[in-house]
Write a structure and sequence with these properties.
Length: 339
């Protein structure tokens, strides 16, 4: 069945920054056959394709002279259950947080720390989404992707994906793989990860010593709601910069000047710096230039107060990068995908 292409579609409702740019063409894929039909038609017409999930890790700096293919496939299922380990699968277009909530309602543990992350299941492997000490690689059981170069469908196991800190094979090869569905190995017994940020403290405040996965999820949701702007109210794409992982020597130099530097030693001897701390220290927290700004509570988050363009936000990001490099000798890498 042919999939209709719309023309000159505003992408404002399709990106969480709320940037008002236009897609030359726009189509939605509800199934693998929709994906194939759209890609074949785009190939025939020689139109480039930009795959879009929830638009929550994207900064659109110009009109998209391409076909935007919005992943709208749905479905989630249990593939295997031995009473303890449970293999689940979800289609790429499934919204991430409702999928996490569904898994918790089945009594399945493993995704609770990844609650309330916006976006879709299909985009989650792109940057190996992570929060509160858990990344999807920790529960990843495989994915099915279409090779856009050859049209072949390929299965990926954990070792094939080259997952790293907010990174993967898929992110490093933009436009090559279209992820169709993802599988997760979940468990009926909880292995709680509570040592990150204020999670344990929040549970203790609620008088919970032996939390369930649902209680951990609820605690993380409440922390996130307090700290992070809701894109429905204030445009943003979450953390705009990755936390830089730098040599220990560089951190010692910074610590000599700033004893309060927030730094986490890594297993390989390097040190992860909290980018938000660097940006706040440099005085950017709450900064606003027109409608582009740095959030007043969380300096890692750039925000659109209404009519900021992607180019304005990109410009602000570059000014912050230059300032942090000059002050601390640290290069900040942008996290969202730039178009
Ligand atoms: P999109 O923004 O639509 O796309 C991102 C990239 O993936 C694009 O390059 C796109 O082309 C590509 N893509 C999308 N779908 C597919 C597919 N099916 N196949 C191939 N390529 C695809 N991230 C974290 O890691 N941890 C967090 O805690 C976190 N918190 C956030 C909080 C807020 C308030 C916001 C706004 C964002 C946050 N993010 C976080 C970032 C973002 O939500 C995640 O990276 C999410 O996985 C992006 O999903 P998406 O569907 O919105 O992707
Ligand atoms: P936070 O708790 O204020 O901590 C600040 C930073 O310190 C985090 O970015 C985190 O790094 C790091 N950190 C905290 N405790 C750590 C520990 N025990 N060991 C190692 N590193 C530690 O962070 P936050 O901004 O409120 O975010 C909470 C979690 O949600 C973080 O994991 C963050 O990555 C995630 N989050 C991500 C996005 C996004 O768009 N990518 C947006 C919002 C929140 P890490 O980032 O490496 O975890």
């Amino acid at each position: 069945m042919p999939v209709p292409w719309q023309q000159h579609v505003s992408l404002k409702p399709y990106n969480t920054f709320g940037i008002d740019v236009t897609a030359r063409y726009f189509a939605q894929a509800h199934s693998d056959s929709d994906v194939r039909a759209v890609l074949a038609e785009a190939h025939r017409r020689e139109v480039p394709v930009l795959v879009l999930g929830g638009g929550s890790n994207l900064l659109l700096t110009r009109d998209v002279e391409a076909l935007v293919l919005h992943m709208a496939s749905s479905g989630r299922q249990v593939l295997a259950d031995d009473g303890q380990r449970v293999l689940v699968e979800a289609e790429a277009g499934e919204p991430w947080h409702p999928f996490v909530q569904w898994s918790l309602a089945q009594g399945l543990c493993g995704l609770e720390n990844l609650s309330l992350i916006p976006g879709t299941v299909g985009a989650a492997p792109m940057q190996n989404v992570g929060a509160y000490g858990v990344e999807i690689k920790d529960v990843f059981a495989g994915l099915t992707a279409l090779d856009r170069q050859t049209g072949e469908v390929r299965e990926f196991a954990l070792q094939d994906c080259a997952f790293g800190y907010r990174d993967s094979l898929f992110k490093r090869n933009p436009g090559r793989w279209l992820i169709l569905r993802v599988r997760f190995a979940l468990s009926r017994s909880l292995q709680a990860h509570l040592d990150y940020g204020p999670v344990r403290q929040r549970l203790a405040e609620q008088g919970i010593e032996q939390p369930t996965a649902q209680a951990i999820s609820d605690a993380i949701c409440s922390i996130r709601r307090e700290k992070l702007p809701d894109p429905a109210e204030l445009g943003n794409a979450g953390s705009f910069f990755k936390n830089p992982v730098v040599p220990a020597q560089l951190v010692e130099g910074i610590r000599a000047r700033f004893p309060g530097v927030v730094a986490y030693p890594q297993a390989d001897g390097q040190v992860k710096l909290a980018a938000g701390w660097l940006i706040e220290q440099a005085g950017w927290k709450g900064y606003r230039d027109g409608d582009a700004g740095v959030h007043r509570l969380q300096s890692l988050v750039l925000v659109n107060y209404g009519r900021a363009s992607g180019a304005q936000l990109h410009d602000l990001a570059r000014r912050i990068q230059a300032d942090i490099l000059e002050r601390f000798g640290v290069t900040l890498e942008m996290e969202p995908n730039l178009y």
